[in-house]
């Protein structure tokens, strides 16, 4: 395993279709389904929540899938590829710390739900339940890329069956109001908050999506990688999020996510709730492994920017252990009773943090450098990409400031959003501002020299 290093062509393998399994299964778990719970709790109404969920999923997954397409072309972890935009040290400060927050936040949500699921299934203490879940996930993460891919392929069909039966149970639930699927009043503020939550969940994959395509052969094209990521992830997200909303609508606002899912499944057949929660818990163990692996990679990347790190299983184990402690402490503070509020805010704030980054990274890859990077320079603190990439950092900071007036959060509503009746359009501000500013700042780059260095290195193709 290459940890944060570049993967040479001689060690590339696998099929692009393998991405379908990992990103389809990646959304079939308790935390992803709880996204539907958080979305419905905003107050847009069930049908408008479903509409916003579909649109938000398609929107967020679009950017996530283009990040995935970088993997086979570069053979690099997603966050290491941020060095050309933000600099050797700048990427560690601007991007990787936010990515680490991303992993801790999602793993905390996973921890709370896995503990609750173990308690529901086996009657054991939630802390012990989380310890068991995290230990299993840590073992998978320790073995890394290949085992994560393999396990997700094994889980595809069993979880597909669970989802199909859950869908029948949810739609036939007698507790659903007669007019549950009536459109009702359109509430623009709530609708857009649901959109941001769902888009934010999918965009949350972006900082590490290409980590699971970078071992594919370099001959795998951008188009095929994009579609084998976009369709499986987008469709499963829509299915899972909407199903979560429907089951929560039937169970009522006093139910925890695990209680809502179990009770809906039991409406179809007594005892099926136990099976459904077990299946969703197994899916959660898989995504916990992905999040632990990604968090470990972020910590190694940050450490490597200060002092070069030699890849080893020991350093991976240390990173996973640190993740375990950080997540456990955060989960203790939040607790299952405050899960919906915590998780909803997590999704919103992460959407804000990664919107400018995704624009800058994709503009750099597809429009500025057009896939051509000097690999050895990415791993050099004094290389051509510099220690601090002022272009990326400045574009990020300005775009984030431009987003603030249009943000809507529990503690703060920006003046621009307030003038729009509480409608959150911050993502639609941040994306063009960040991308446009970065493209403008890059006019002073000596791209001819960079392209010559890429050609001389002879590792990556470059579009002239």
Describe the protein.
The chain is mainly α. The protein has a single domain (9-355), classed as Hydantoin permease. Helix content is 70%, strand content 0%. It contains 19 helices and no strands. It has helices at residues 18-25, 30-40, 46-68, 70-74, 83-86, 90-122, 126-143, 145-171, 188-203, 222-251, 257-268, 272-306, 313-334, 339-368, 375-378, 390-403, 415-419, 426-441, 447-457. Helix 2 (30-40) runs antiparallel to helix 9 (188-203) and helix 11 (257-268) runs antiparallel to helix 12. The radius of gyration is 22 Å and the shape is globular. The two termini are 32 Å apart. 56% of the residues are buried.
Compact description:
The protein is 70% helix and 0% strand.
Please report the number of helical segments: 19
Fraction of residues in β-strands: under 5%
The number of domains is 1
**Uncertain spans:** none
């Amino acid at each position: 395993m290459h940890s944060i290093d570049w993967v040479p062509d001689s060690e590339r393998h696998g099929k692009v279709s393998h991405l379908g399994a990992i990103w389809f299964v990646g959304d079939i778990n308790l935390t992803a389904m709880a996204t539907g719970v958080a979305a419905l709790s905003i107050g847009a109404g069930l049908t408008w929540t479903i509409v916003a969920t579909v649109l938000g999923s398609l929107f967020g997954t679009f950017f996530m899938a283009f990040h995935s397409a970088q993997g086979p072309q570069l053979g690099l972890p997603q966050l290491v590829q941020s060095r050309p935009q933000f600099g050797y040290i700048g990427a560690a400060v601007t991007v990787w710390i936010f990515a680490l927050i991303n992993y801790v936040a999602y793993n905390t949500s996973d921890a709370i739900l896995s503990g609750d699921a173990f308690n529901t299934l086996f009657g054991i203490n939630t802390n012990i339940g989380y310890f068991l879940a995290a230990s299993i996930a840590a073992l998978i993460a320790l073995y890394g890329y290949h085992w994560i891919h393999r396990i997700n392929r094994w889980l595809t069909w069993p979880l597909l069956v669970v989802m199909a039966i859950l869908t029948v149970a949810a739609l036939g639930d007698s507790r659903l109001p007669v007019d549950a699927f009536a459109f009702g009043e359109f509430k623009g503020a709530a609708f857009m908050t649901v959109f941001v939550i769902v888009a934010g969940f999918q965009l949350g994959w972006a900082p590490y999506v290409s980590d699971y395509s970078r071992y594919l052969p370099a001959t795998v094209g951008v188009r095929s990688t994009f579609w084998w990521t976009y369709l499986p992830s987008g469709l499963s997200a829509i299915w899972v999020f909407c199903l979560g909303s429907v089951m929560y609508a039937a169970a009522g606002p006093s139910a925890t996510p695990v209680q809502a899912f179990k009770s809906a499944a039991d409406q179809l057949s007594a005892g099926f709730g136990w099976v459904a929660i077990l299946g969703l818990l197994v899916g959660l163990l898989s995504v916990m492994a992905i999040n632990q692996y990604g968090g470990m990679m972020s910590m190694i990347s940050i450490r490597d920017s200060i002092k070069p790190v030699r890849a080893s299983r020991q350093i991976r184990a240390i990173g996973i252990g640190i993740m375990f402690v950080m997540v456990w402490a955060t989960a203790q503070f939040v607790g299952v009773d405050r899960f919906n509020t915590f998780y909803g805010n997590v999704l919103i704030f992460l959407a804000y943090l990664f919107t400018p980054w995704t624009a800058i990274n994709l503009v750099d890859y597809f429009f500025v450098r057009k896939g051509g990077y000097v690999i050895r320079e990415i791993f050099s603190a004094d290389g051509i990409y510099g220690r601090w990439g002022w272009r990326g950092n400045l574009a990020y900071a300005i775009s984030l400031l431009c987003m603030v007036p249009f943000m809507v959060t529990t503690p703060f509503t920006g003046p621009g959003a307030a003038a729009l009746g509480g409608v959150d359009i911050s993502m639609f501000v941040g994306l063009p501002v960040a991308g446009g500013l970065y493209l403008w700042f890059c006019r002073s780059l000596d791209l001819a020299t960079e392209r010559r260095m890429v050609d001389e290195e002879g590792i990556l193709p470059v579009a002239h």
